[in-house]
Design a protein that fits this description.
mainly alpha; 8 helices
């Protein structure tokens, strides 16, 4: 058993080494390091909302979130403003975590274990899809971009229509389709980051922002899906 595992691991690392060269690996280390800081910052924001009275998610914090995002996107990377742009990013992710606070409070009131289950599930999904993108041949999954954006546009249009129809079926379809779309974006954005690097983009802060948005979106969808399942299970128990 052990002897069969070692060749598999060797094949895995050999595949990783041949797919990515050293400069790309270093860039990805910066991206994922920045992503780790972003998730910690978001967790701190959620904690502040839920367990302190310092800040609460409201319209002002939403405006602040958008303001920091615009500031980050409108400040081009020049190699010297890294600390400033990192500050914008961490401020944005902190307020994003703060914005998750109300949803997390609702989920905790139903079943606190859902939060940890959703977090572990999101991490497993994110790591698995990221590895799939990193080990795949360069550009293999970039064709997904057109499909994902088309599906996203369809969802936006149907969301507008559903404002008038108020169909529960459409809402559920959006929830599950949105979840699968975000999983697809993890693969697409990961390979797009590598492609952008080869085209000369060294902006690892902006690249980590793309992955952070994907991570939070998967987490949010998974939270809602698991909460709905828990409520449905409780409802069936009461009927029985």
């Amino acid at each position: 058993m052990a002897s069969s595992t070692i060749p598999n691991l060797n094949a895995f690392f050999n595949s990783f080494s041949t797919t990515l060269n050293s400069p790309v690996k270093q860039h990805l280390k910066n991206v994922y390091g920045c992503l780790s800081l972003s998730t910690v910052s978001a967790a701190a924001g959620a904690y502040v909302h839920m367990y302190t009275q310092l800040l609460q998610a409201n319209l002002l914090t939403t405006i602040g979130t958008m303001g920091l995002l615009i500031a980050l996107m409108s400040t081009p990377y020049d190699g010297k403003n890294q600390k400033l742009r990192l500050g914008y990013l961490l401020g944005f992710t902190f307020l994003s975590g703060l914005g998750l606070g109300p949803l997390l409070e609702l989920v905790v009131s139903i079943d606190p274990s859902i939060v940890m289950t959703a977090l572990v599930g999101t991490t497993v999904i994110f790591v698995s899809f990221s590895l799939s993108a990193l080990l795949a041949p360069r550009g293999r999954w970039l064709y997904l971009g057109g499909i994902l954006m088309s599906m996203l546009n369809i969802m936006l249009i149907s969301s507008f229509v559903n404002l008038f129809l108020r169909s529960f079926f459409i809402m559920q379809a959006h929830l599950y389709l949105g979840f699968f779309l975000m999983c697809g974006f993890v693969i697409y954005d990961t390979q797009l980051i590598i492609e952008k690097y080869h085209m000369g983009s060294r902006d690892f802060i902006m690249h980590s922002l793309d992955l952070f948005i994907d991570f939070v979106s998967v987490f949010r969808h998974l939270l809602v899906i698991l909460t709905q399942k828990e409520l449905s299970k409780d409802s069936r128990k009461r009927k029985d």
